[in-house]
Design brief:
With 408 residues, the chain is of the alpha/beta class. The protein is built from 15 helices and 14 strands.
């Protein structure tokens, strides 16, 4: 990320004029209002707020409507390093070619961590894949275990980028031992790529400024922090390019993984196609657009809550959801789906006769501050039902076989 600091500073200078005009408008109109009647003052004040809101929308939300090439900080104008990085990203193996994976290894799924580094470390230790060296460095100790993190690393916590780097570092170490780490994108990753920072904490903005390499005199100012975050997360930005390597949907053996859920029309659209289109959009490739099926509606892959209700309103609703789930699994020749996205008050649990597993327990201190839980999946033929993976929930205070939690 050598070019990130230059990029962020360049974006800051390019956008400072626009933000300054908003402040100047606010100040000049405040002075002009002093002698006006009360009703006139209110109308003028609302006009000022509307002007500044519109300016902020143009400044922050523009990335969601473009492929990033129109941004002030677009990589093509930053320097050779950013251009070469974009070229290299196009040479990567498309995610569609590795959307369906088979393995004889143990798989561990981890739900939403939302910027809580302490709970992320606890979940990884619970999974038996992380130890800390005497020097305090993270060390992969999971052998050939495969870890799947279901998205929503971002927002609601102060250490989002540190967590992302932790997973990427462990991925490198895991591969040396025959294991792997797969990351999925959640709705909060897509929000940040779109420039929607409503759920970013003050610590998250500070972290963005630090990662962007801003000098101390700039890093402490919110406007500079905001511009740095846009530079990092806009399509084609350094963090956006990292997230472009994460999946929208993934299948390992007979288990399907998604942040919110897979619906029948997603399968018809093509899971590999969804992965590739999201990757191209996040990388800021020319002409790329985010796929509606992935993040554009309440029943998109990243936002779906069809299978996540802990209590259905009626048995008819439950039957409908389970029928949709069965159709999807049959289309994919899978036995179960694992999702995050919706915090489960009862902890990791399953429904529809064990065919849907909901593993977002709200472990982040920015959500429910619950104890960490993860889902362990043993591959088919590893001592369970022939032809079907064996599921087990691991909890901070111990573990119990999944069969004890299977409901009707």
């Amino acid at each position: 990320m050598a070019a990130v600091g230059t990029w962020a500073q360049d974006l800051a200078m390019r956008t400072a004029a626009g933000r300054g005009r908003c402040a100047e408008t606010r100040g000049s109109l405040r002075r002009r209002r002093e002698g006006l009647p009360l009703a006139r003052r209110r109308r003028t004040a609302e006009g000022t707020r509307r002007t500044c809101r519109e300016g902020r929308r143009r400044y922050v939300r523009e990335p969601c409507c473009t492929n990033g090439s129109e941004q002030a900080g677009k990589p093509a104008e930053v320097g050779g390093e950013a251009i070469e990085a974009q070229k290299a990203s196009r040479d990567l193996v498309p995610l569609s070619e590795k959307t369906f994976i088979t393995t004889d290894s143990r798989v561990v799924a981890i739900g939403d961590v939302h910027g809580d580094l302490q709970k992320t470390v606890a979940a990884l230790k619970l999974a038996g894949v992380l130890s800390i060296s005497a020097e305090g460095a993270p060390v992969w100790c999971g052998g050939d275990t495969v870890v799947v993190q279901l998205g929503d690393i971002l927002d609601r916590g102060d250490h989002e980028i540190q967590i992302l780097h932790l997973f990427l570092r462990l991925k490198e170490q895991a591969k040396e031992q025959g294991g792997d780490v797969f990351l999925l994108n959640g709705n909060h990753e897509s929000l940040n790529i779109c420039g929607d920072f409503r759920y970013v904490t003050s610590g998250g903005f500070v972290e963005s400024a630090r990662v962007a390499g801003l000098p101390p005199e700039m890093a402490g100012k919110f406007q500079a922090q905001l511009k740095a975050r846009v530079a990092l997360f806009a399509p084609g930005g350094p963090i956006a390019r990292e997230l472009a390597n994460s999946y929208t949907a993934l299948q390992i053996n007979d288990t399907v993984f998604a942040h919110g859920g897979i619906m029948p029309h997603h399968v018809d659209y093509g899971l590999g196609r969804l992965n590739d289109e999201m990757s191209r959009w996040m990388r800021g490739e020319e002409g790329a657009r985010s796929p509606m099926a992935a993040m554009g509606s309440p029943d998109s892959v990243l936002w779906c809550r069809e299978y996540s209700r802990e209590i259905w309103k009626t048995q008819v609703d439950r039957s409908r959801s389970c029928a949709l789930l069965s159709k999807v699994l049959n289309q994919l020749s899978a036995n179960q789906m694992v999702v995050g996205h919706t915090p489960q008050e009862m902890g990791c649990n399953c429904e529809c006769n064990g065919r849907i597993w909901r593993i977002d327990v709200g472990m982040s201190s920015g959500v429910c501050n619950a104890l960490a839980q993860v889902l362990e999946i043993q591959p088919p033929g590893a001592g369970g039902t022939p032809g079907q993976s064996t599921m087990r929930v691991l909890k901070m205070e111990g573990s119990y076989p999944a069969s004890l939690s299977r409901g009707p």
